[in-house]
Amino acid sequence: MIKRLLLLFVLTLLCLKGWSQDPQFSQFYANPLYLNPALAGGALAPRATINYRNQWPSLSANFVTTSVGADIFLPNYNSGLGVLVTMDSQGLGNLKSTDVALQYSYQIRLNEVTSLRLGIQGGFASRKLDYFGLTFGDQYNNGGLTGQPSEDPFAQGGPNVNYADFGSGLMLYSDWYWAGISAHHLNRPNQAFSSVSEARLPVKTSFQAGLRIPFAGYTFLGDEIDKEKTISPAIMYKKQGKYDQFDAGLYATIEPLVLGVWYRGIPFKKYEQNINNHEALIFLAGYRQDKFSIGYSYDLTISTLGASSGGAHEISLSYIFDPIESKPRRSKSSKKQLSCPKF
C-alpha cells in the first residue's frame, strides 16, 4: 500500500514537470536519423529503417520506444532529406510521446579522402498522460481501495502538450574514421503538463567517433556490402541537463555478419557516494545481405537496478533501395559513402 502511494506521488511529480531525458537506443548507428540529422541521406540512396526497444521488460514501469525513419540522397544537390517518427511509452502512468522530425543535410567533399556533412532538423512533438489504471487518494478509506471512480481533477486527464523542436549536427569522415556532433532541443521547449509550472526540455548534445580498420586484405575498394572485413572501435558521449553518459565498444564485420560488444557507464564518476556509475554491457548480432540489414542487441544491466530488470531488448531493420541516378557533371562529385557502422 505504502509503496503504491509512493510510486503514485513520484509519478505525479514527473507528469507535472515532464521528461528530462530522451529515449535511447543501443544500436544508435542502425537509427542514424535519431542519432544525428547530418546522417540524413547518408546511404546515398533511398533508405527505410525501423527500430524497436523494450527497456526493463521485467518491471511494470518499463520503457518501450519505436522509431520509423526514411531518408533519401539527392546527388544533383549533394543533399539528403529525412523524416523520422519516434513513439515512446513510459511506465505505469502511460506517459506517451510522439515526435515527428524533418531533416536536411548537405555533403561537402573537402579533399580526396575526407568529407563533411552538415544537418538541421525541425519537428513537432506531442506528449500525453493517460491516467487509466492509476488510483488516487480519494479512492481509499480505512478499509482500503473503495472501487469507486476518483473525482480528483488529475484523474480526468488533461490536454496534450504540443511543441516545436529543433536540432542540428555535423559529421566529418573518411574511409577509415568518422567523428560527429549533434544537438537536439536547441529551442528548449516547455513540456510541462501543468500551466502553473514550467519544465524546459534540456538540450541534448552528443559526440560520436570511431575508426574502421580493415583486415584480411580488405582495401575499401569495390562492392563493400559483399566483402567488408573490418574492426571498428567506437565511442559516444552524450549529455542532457545534469545527466551524461559514455559508451565505448567494438564492432567486428565479416560480411554478412556483424558482431559487437559495448560498455555503457562512467566508472570514474559517481552520482552518489559509494554507488558506481556502471549501467550496462551491450551485446549485438547483425546480418547484412544485399540491401537488407537486421540486428538484435541485449543490454545486460550492471547498475544497482540489477539483472532483475530484464535488461533491454532491441531490434533494428533497414532496407536500402536503388540509388537515384545523377546528371553528368563537369565538376568532381562530392559523393562519398559514410564509414559509420550499420548497427
From TrEMBL:
Q: Which Pfam families match?
A: PorP_SprF
Protein keywords: Signal
Domain of life from the UniProt record: Bacteria
Read off the InterPro entries from this record: PorP/SprF_Bacteroidetes
In the UniProt record, the signal sequence range is: 1-20
The molecule here is called Type IX secretion system membrane protein, PorP/SprF family
